[in-house]
Structures are given as C-alpha cells and as structure tokens.
Design goal:
There is one protein chain. The protein is an alpha+beta fold and 177 residues long. It has a single domain, classed as Ubiquitin-like (UB roll). The chain is built from six helices and five strands. The protein is elongated, with a radius of gyration of 20 Å.
Length: 177
Amino acid sequence: MQTTLSPPAPVENASAALPALGTVRLTVNGTAKTLQIAPWTTLLDALREYLNLTGTKKGCDHGQCGACTVLINGKRINSCLTLAVMHDDHEITSIEGLANADGSLHPLQTAFVDHDAFQCGYCTPGQICSAVGLMNEGQAKSEADVRELMSGNICRCGAYPHIVDAVTEVMGIEKQA
C-alpha cells in the first residue's frame, strides 16, 4: 500500500513566530565584541561562527566531552551548554586568549608541548582551558585530584598520562609513584 503525504500548509507570518535577533555584548579574550545573534545561539557557536575563534571545538554538543571548555570569569564551563546571551558583562577566555600579550605561551600550553600531552589535538584546547580553570579553583592537591577533576574532558587518543604530567608540573604537584 502506497501513501502520499500532503505538503505542509504554509505558515502564515513565519517570521513573526521567531524572535528577532538580539544584541549581545561579550568580552572575549579581553576585547569587547557586539553581536547580532538569535537568542538561542550557544556561546560555542557565537565564538566559532560569529567571532571566528575556532580553537574551541564542537565535540559532542551535549556537554559530555569537554572539547568546548572555555573560561567564564576564570571558571571552566562547557560552552555548548550555555547561551551567549547569558554572558553579557562576563570575561570569556578561549584558548586563543591564554597566551601572554607578548605572544609567549601560557605555562600550561608550554607544558602540554613539553610533555607531548596531545596526539590529534582535537581535545587540547578544552583540556588546557579546563586545566587553567582547575588551577583557578585551587581544589587539586594531588595527582589523583587532577585526574578526578579533569575527568569531564575526554581524550579519544588516550593521552591522559601526559596531560596529567603537564598539569601537575605546572601546579607543582609531585608525581605519585
């Protein structure tokens, strides 16, 4: 038995059904930015699609992998789970904003290179931003703490031992035997 579907009826005033674009003022990596975006635009999409800051990665788009981790007022957050409009007057730092003004790398970025704490590199920006947030939180006192508190950031290549080595070195935490 064959069935045919009727084409959907046209929606009258379709543009009236959607909210208008809104103005959002974000401070990203120390620079004030004004965007005209839909109210449902995630911070991740605002960074990548509107500001062309593509270092922050879209992994799972469900907040489960940590590839999209950025810092909001120094605290780590999954940018795929938060709307850009929620961050007026907040300081947003992406991987592009971690380097020093003179162009030298953040100590964690240097440690990741020194410890070969990446393979494909896809998770690296989120791992580094998460580690900076971890340091800002001041809760990690041991290698086990670092492992636990970084567990929300997934590395499919399995570079975890090198990531932990890089983070603990910068934090001055002694390696456990």
